[in-house]
Amino acid sequence: MDISASVLTYFLIPAVKAVVVVILVATAAGVLTYIERRTLAFLQVRKGPNRVGPEGILQFVADVVKLLTKEDVVPAKAQHFIHFLAPVLVMVPGLAVFAVLPWGPEFTMRIPGLGKITTAWYATDLNVSLLLLLAITTVGIYGIILGGWASNSKYALIGGLRSAAQLISYEVPMGFAVVSAILMARSLSLVEIVEAQRTHHMWFILPGLVSFFLYFVSGVAETNRIPFDLPEAESELVAGFHTEYSGFRWAIFFLTEYANMITISAVATALFFGGWLRPFPNVAALAFLDVIPGVLWYVLKVSCFLFVYIWFRGTFPRYRFDQLMALGWKTLIPISLTNLVLVALAALGGFRGLRILGIVLWGAAIGAFLIVTRLRAAKPPAAKTAPASVRARAAEA
Amino acid sequence: MSETVGTAGSVPETRDTMLGLREMELNFGPQHPSTHGVLRIVLKVDGERIVSARPDIGYLHRGTEKLFETETYPMVIPHTDRLDYVAAATNNHAYCLTVEKLLGLEIPKRAQYIRIVLDEMQRISSHLLWLATAAIDLGAITPFFYTFREREVILDLFEDYCGARLTLNCMRVGGLQEDLTPGWLEKLRAFTEDLGSKIDEYEDLLTENRIWKMRTVGVGILTTERCIAWGVTGPPLRAAGLAWDVRRALPYECYPELDFEIPTGKNADTYDRYLVRIAELRQSRRILLQCCDWLAANPTGEIRGKVPRVIKPPAGDAYASVESPKGELGFYLVSNGGNKPYRLRVRPPSFINLQALPEMARGHMVSDLVAIIGTIDIVLGEVDR
């Protein structure tokens, strides 16, 4: 390999990729805010932003411009340096994790003047990319805590404290859920985990039903979204840890939250939904699905999760702080530990063991669902705690 | 934000704080997303647990009761609109009832029915607004838009009837100013018949929602005894199990002729207050349907009794009350025989219900305070007057 080739492989291509990733992520987070507003509007019988650009698609651009040019107010008694540092601490990890997200397989393209280049739809493939991912995302918590503390506001402080407790609690079940995926794939590399789902002839959602559920619930908590949005609970803490932030620093908190949503969805896709693989990657009869390139499959799956995020926001009330802690420590962690043991035992049996575990889990889940719906249908329409509305309804009927 | 902190033990009801640390004083309001106006609550919190909560009111004080004394009797009515500004009709009604009581006026039947229609529409719109804000306080943002969809129809109907959407000024001493506009009753009936399924929609979102129940069941309990001790009326009292409703207990207009029930709860908590209000929406709907039937069967009639040109009630005093959406709304009128009230005192349910807040909030978390304020259902215009 001559020098120009190594420059190309080790410097030029990664640099281009890094720039592209950062730009794409920032744009995607912006677009996501627009999509969320439109989707919520759809759920809530209203129109949502529809004035700037066609169907309001440029609304987020207008918002960013507005925030960039807005006065940046810092409270008089705030710790100025830390107040400045906090958004940076939140944003950098939020963007850095995108380096290891595997959006698509390797591919070869021909660039005029450079010849054939083999590269991939991800910035890098570390052999410990999952560890890196968990480590980096955790750093973001410091930004939130410090931002809450440095603001010299009690609301922000409570928001920061809530967020510290919440993120630490939910990091644990999330970690266990990720470990179960590692056990199934026997690798820490996201790319290899995706590839393992091809060699195992199944997406890991099959044996990893519980793991996925744990991962996604913890993920919603990690991103401070409803029903776990306590650190920024508007009706209680005004705006939580970013109460005293305005202008573009606030925008950084805001956009990073959306970037984190994308990260959580993307990792869930890679770990449990076969990444860029089409459904049933080994069934030849479905080969026509390969018309859709892997990247699109990935984006499609991530979009589904993002929709679920927005759907949650349109549906759920917010947990209370102690209930949130109880859910994390008393429910999710025991389940995740049990699940980890089950997955580990099944993984000992290799491909066959995982498949049996998957069939058992899905059978149990579908059975439980049928029983619960049957019981619901058998029960009278209103619950026993509702004497008032029962009588009122009965009288009306 | 003040830097003062109370030491542990300075408040009688305090527990030992963790590590002997001091409690934090937290200013909740007056500019806060969930105090529903300009209510300030000074909280002493141990971590997130409330040691004491002290409501600080008066930010919206306009001296309304003094103002009443400078206005002639008909001129008082628009001022009553601004007490509980999301339920103007019931305010008008309570005031008119009081003056009529002192004058000894007979109200024509048709006017009575139209007044009840306006009252019950107002109750529905007020309860819808309450549901919207109470849900949004607990993080459920969607019910807001659903309830406002229906509230909008009611406000449009008000606009059709009297030209105003909020500050209705729709009743007069002795009856009403205007009869119903043509076609109004049909629009009202269409809306009312549709409302049942809409209420089902709100219930689908909340009633059996696990998080909603976790947030509301057992929160902010105020037993019947404590309700009576504080003078709390309205949905909080009925949620505690006492079927006290002015429409039945101290009947006015032709409510005795109408068939409806008084929903009650039994656990006296936030969830029961929610259920009671939802059930009241359904009951108001029942009343509206019956009124529509009567008004359709009796399409014409007097709408104003024999009122003298200048209203000068004889010297004396009178108290009359109605069941407003928030509770018992009463006016106490003292007349010296002149054309202006000598003194007009309001019994505002929001103010009296709000008094129980410290007791309800003690020992709960800050998040619960929001839920409790939400289901007391206060309007600061009425609290401060």
Describe the structure.
The complex is a heterodimer of chains A (397) and B (385). Chain A has 397 residues and is mainly α. Chain A has two domains: 74-347, no CATH class; 349-397. Chain A is 67% helix and 3% strand. Chain A is built from 13 helices and two strands; from the N terminus they run H-H-H-E-E-H-H-H-H-H-H-H-H-H-H. Chain A has helices spanning 3-43, 59-68, 80-96, 129-150, 154-185, 190-199, 209-222, 234-237, 247-272, 294-315, 321-348, 350-378, 387-396; strands spanning 106-111, 115-120. Chain A has a two-stranded antiparallel ribbon. In chain A, 44% of the residues are buried. The model of chain A is unreliable at 382-397 (pLDDT under 50). Chain B has 385 residues and is of the alpha+beta class. Chain B has one domain: Orthogonal Bundle (Cytochrome-c3 Hydrogenase, chain B). Chain B has helices at 64-68, 73-81, 88-103, 109-137, 142-162, 184-206, 210-216, 224-230, 235-239, 246-249, 270-297, 349-354, 357-361, 366-376, 380-384; strands at 24-28, 40-46, 49-56, 171-172, 175-176, 316-324, 327-335, 343-347. Chain B has a three-stranded antiparallel beta sheet. In chain B, strands 6-7-8 form a three-stranded antiparallel beta sheet. A two-stranded antiparallel ribbon of chain B has the order 4-5. In chain B, a hairpin with a 7-residue loop joins strand 7 (327-335) and strand 8. In chain B, helix 2 (73-81) runs antiparallel to helix 3 and helix 5 runs antiparallel to helix 6 (184-206). The two termini of chain B are 27 Å apart. The model of chain B is unreliable at 1-14 (pLDDT under 50). The interface between A and B is large, with 40 and 54 residues.
